[in-house]
Amino acid sequence: MISIERIRNNLEALKSSLALKGYNVDLNEIISIDSDYRASLSLVNDLRAERNKVTNQIAELKKSKQDANDKIVSMRALGSKIKDLESEISVKKERLDDLILNLPNVPHESVPPGSDESNNKVIYEWGVEKNQSFDIKNHLSLGSSLKLFDFERSAKLSGSGFPLYTGKGALLERSLINFMLEIQTQKNDYLEIIPPFLVNSNSVLTTGNLPKFSEDMYHSEIDDMWLIPTAEVPLTNIHYNEILNQSDLPKKYTAFSACFRREAGSYGKDTKGFQRLHQFNKVEIVQLVEPEESYKALESLTSHAEMVLKSLNLKYRKIELCAGDLSFSAAKCYDLEIWAPAEGKWLEVSSCSNFEDFQSRRGNIRYRKEVDNKVDFVHTLNGSGLATPRLLIALLETYQNANGTITVPEPLQDYTKLKIID
Questions:
Q1: Do both 188 and 307 map to the same domain?
Q2: What's the pLDDT score for residue 264?
Q3: How far is it, in rounded angstroms, from Cα 375 to Cα 140?
Q4: CB atoms within 10 A of CB 372
């Protein structure tokens, strides 16, 4: 959430920054409502003070056995006027909050300009593509012949976009999750969390999924609970409405979760196999840090996600997103894209973002400085470390053999107890 002070004091600069993200919004309406709201609030405070004064006068008159009827009538009139003003103020505040909550985060000054993904910047590529002297198969063909997953039967259970892992496919999926969790906990010092997969509306409001993206999530109206689109939501909200000590920072959390997304806008996009799902598994990494440390933390957090790809010796590239391709909540973001040889294209497996204080303001997540005891908002960051569906695509297609088997990458062999999947 952008602070109202920032909107008041940097109006034109803010308009220009938001335009880089493709948002041409009328901030003047926010300024107007805010001015009206503050004027009404000042007036009602004056009237409350006057009511308190009259109340004291009535008490003195009664104490001295004098007539207080005129004062009582005056106090009742004041009370009625205050009640009407409080109702108006509530409406104005609700409208002001709604407008601000629908504003995206401001791109960091280092983010390259551009309107869409064609303007994203490739930072570097890592790894080399394996030389395969045979006709390679795609992940769907491999998975079908090796009985690793069954999309036809899963469709009977839940419809399209809900995978059913079977046998060694389930074993490989579970092994990947455990492998990634152990990298983050044992090598990168993240605290492992097993979070709830259903959260309340405050939680998804904090991360920026509400109010703008309600149609992209699964919602239980009876309980007003949301299936999480990513473990970022519960992990970020662990310290909702809390004040942390400066010495407690950084907070580093990791979690495996199933992720649920309606993919309402995915019509016409490639939805074959594991490329786009309504339910998928992911290991998430989240950090809460001091503001001065957040861009250094973004680089290290991204490297923590890259560590998984390097350990599996999979070809990937690091992309810096341009302003127009940034998510609603992100101030800066790197995508990690993995090479899928049979698909013949790069597939995103991780987004690593710095949200600065955008989420912490929405969730009121703060810390107390040791030097002056002042309270400030933390900066929040998160990244996929990693999402398994596209990782599995690249892994199967990269490590396939001429006879249709899959060589299990060496780091996973301790988890699967297999060298070959056949």
A1: yes
A2: 62
A3: 53
A4: 7
Q: Which residues of 29-66 are buried (b: 16+ CB within 10 A; e: fewer)?
A: ebeebbeebeebeeebeebeeebeebeeebeebeeeee
Question: What would the pLDDT profile of 191-201 be if each residue is shown by its tens digit?
Answer: 999 999 999 99
Residues 29 and 58 in one domain: yes
8 vs 193: CA distance, rounded Å? 39
Cα four-point dihedral sign 379, 264, 210, 7: positive
pLDDT digits (tens, 9 = 90+) for 309-335: 999 999 999 999 999 999 999 999 999
Beta pairing, strands 191-192 & 251-260 = parallel
- Output the domain CATH number for residue 255: 3.30.930.10
Asked if residue 106 is part of any domain, the answer here is: no
Domain that holds residue 91: 4-101
Q: What is the dihedral of CA 221, 227, 232, 238, to 10 degrees?
A: 60
Report the Cα 53 to chain-centroid distance in Å. Answer: 49
Going by their DSSP bridges, the two strands 279-289 and 379-387 should be labelled as: antiparallel
Same domain, 37 and 74: yes
The three-state secondary structure class of 270 is: coil
* Boundary of a domain, candidates 39, 74, 101: 101
Cβ neighbour number for residue 91 with a 10 Å cutoff: 11
Domain membership of residue 277 (yes or no) is yes
Q: For every residue of 151-198, which 3-state class applies, written as one string?
A: HHHHHHHHCCCCCCECCHHHHHHHHHHHHHHHHHHHHCCCEECCCCCE
pTM higher than the cut 0.90: yes
The kind and range of the H/E element at 137 are: none
Indicate the burial class of 226 (C-beta count within 10 angstroms; 0-12, 13-18, 19 or more). Answer: buried
Domain total of the chain: 2
Strands lying side by side in the sheet with 375-377? 243-245, 366-368, 375-377
Q: Tokens at residue 163, please? A: 């995978």
Q: What is the mean pLDDT of the chain?
A: 95
Which strand (E) or helix (H) includes residue 339? strand 332-340
